[in-house]
Amino acid sequence: MDNRVKKKLTKSGKGAYSIYIPKKWLDSWLEEQKKKKEVYLLELDEHLLLSPVIKESKKRLSVDLKTTQEIRTLLLSSYVRGYQEVEIHSERKFTNEQISEARGYIRLLDENLQVVANDNCISYKSRNIENKIDYSELFGNLFQKTVEVLELVSELLHFYDLNPQRAVHLIRMINCVEEEDIDRIAFHIFRQMANLEMPFESFIDLEFFGLVVDILERIGDTCIGIAGLVCDIYGIDRNHMHYPLEILEKEVGTKDISIPDNLEELKNIYIQAIKEGCVYLNACRDTVMKRDGLTAYCLKRETMNTRRKVETQIFEAVSRLLEEARKESNGKDKKEKRIRDKELKDTKKSMSNTLYVYQIGYRIRELINYIEGLAKRACLVYYCETMPEDITQTTTQTKRKDEIRDKLCNLEDKSKDKSCIQN
User: Fold this and answer.
1) 269, 313 contact by CB (below 8 A)
2) Distance CA 414, CA 60 (A)
3) Residue 14 — φ and ψ, nearest 5°?
4) 110 close to 188: Cβ distance less than 8 angstroms
5) How many CB atoms within 10 Å of residue 368?
6) What structural domains does the chain harbor?
């Protein structure tokens, strides 16, 4: 359906022009808006958007929600859609747990939301506070927190089989940063975008930055997935990641968390891949914030090579481990085989933990894929905007590629194989 209306500009005065606004649109205004007759003008590309200053932004819902998660999802959905006032009514009484969870979640989303909750209604309303937001800083913080959670995951993979107490602390930190920082900033940006309150220069910028936020939020979710696999190794309920440290340590207790020694190579591959991912993600941040398509082009190639390298390394390492297991299970001495069979039964938990470690590899690949996708999208959107003259293009690309490679070479715990930073 084409809702565009063609209007003719009318000259008004010496240098100004006016345009007639459809009466149907004016009739939809709130009474207060009709009295003030003020509108916002937003320029995007060659478009001029007209928006009333005072808008109807209230959502009232009558629902029959059964779980706390459903209420939480409804609150989040209404928040990112930009509603300034939301009321959720229910015929059945909300439980104390649901009211408490709703209050806590709304405050977590935005400290500028005023919460009211009782047995039959949970609502929030935006306080009329004029906050000047530096959106460059907001996006920068989102990138920074995403890199931070990646670094925590790298540390977790280093200590999960060496220091369970420290690993449990890291699990809790990962959950905290992902939920209270990454998700919170991401949802806040989505809300601002829904109300067109962010200073974008074009529609493609608006679309692209929404995609950037989504990718960073997915990286955070993948980090939670890795922490969840370590929880499985420890026998901790994944839903308890936010519990106090003392409770998590009790859940671990004296459980068998033995990890076979031959997984050290795989563990080092994971850690190195995440460290390289941090370098690439920092480079992506600079590329996105500067709208630098040329660097994005170089970054796209580098992340693609790293992703292929990591896939190959994981495949070869797992293949060697499986071959070792096959040889051990096919021993010629029957007596030794019986002993080994008994040992296998005794180490069933160790075998289960090995499978969890293998699964971490899939999550690592996801992380690199997301970062590669981010570089690809940045290149797609900005390459034509920043491409230099042909005579200097090759030199500039080489220089920026070398800068990324230098950062990779400076990783403290880099692997022996440096093929990922060779052309």
Assistant:
1) yes
2) 55
3) -75, -45
4) yes
5) 22
6) 25-54 (no CATH), 58-126 (3.30.110), 135-421 (1.20.58.220)
CA distances from 304 to 297, 298, 375, 401, 420 (A): 11, 10, 10, 13, 9
Q: How far does CA 2 lie from the centroid of its chain?
A: 35
Mean of per-residue pLDDT scores for the chain: 83
pLDDT tens for each residue of 381-396: 998 887 655 434 555 5
CA distance 384 to 310: 30
| Euclidean distance between CA atoms 272 and 328, whole angstroms | 29
Q: Is 63 left (phi over 0), alpha (psi -120 to 50) or beta?
A: beta
Structure tokens at 395: 């030199």
Q: State how far the Cα of 112 lies from the Cα of 395, in Å rounded to an integer.
A: 49
Distances (CA, A) of 162 to 25, 159, 172, 191, 328: 66, 5, 17, 42, 26
- For 80-136, the pLDDT digits (tens) are 999 989 999 988 888 898 899 999 999 999 988 999 988 889 999 988 766 667 778
- Residue owning tokens 């969890």: 356
Pick left, alpha or beta for residue 86 (phi over 0 → left; psi -120 to 50 → alpha; otherwise beta).
beta
CA 73 to mean position of chain CA atoms: 17
Asked if 234 and 168 count as a contact pair (C-beta separation under 8 A), the reply is: yes
Q: How far apart (Å, rounded) are the C-alpha atoms in residues 151 and 120?
A: 44
Q: What DSSP string describes 207-223?
A: HHHHHHHHHHHHHHHHH
> Long-range CB contacts (< 8 A, 24+ apart) of 100-103?
101/68, 101/71, 101/72, 102/68, 102/71, 102/72, 102/75
Predicted local distance difference test score (pLDDT) of residue 363? 95
Specify the pTM. Answer: 0.85
Q: Which two tokens stand for residue 146?
A: 């995403």
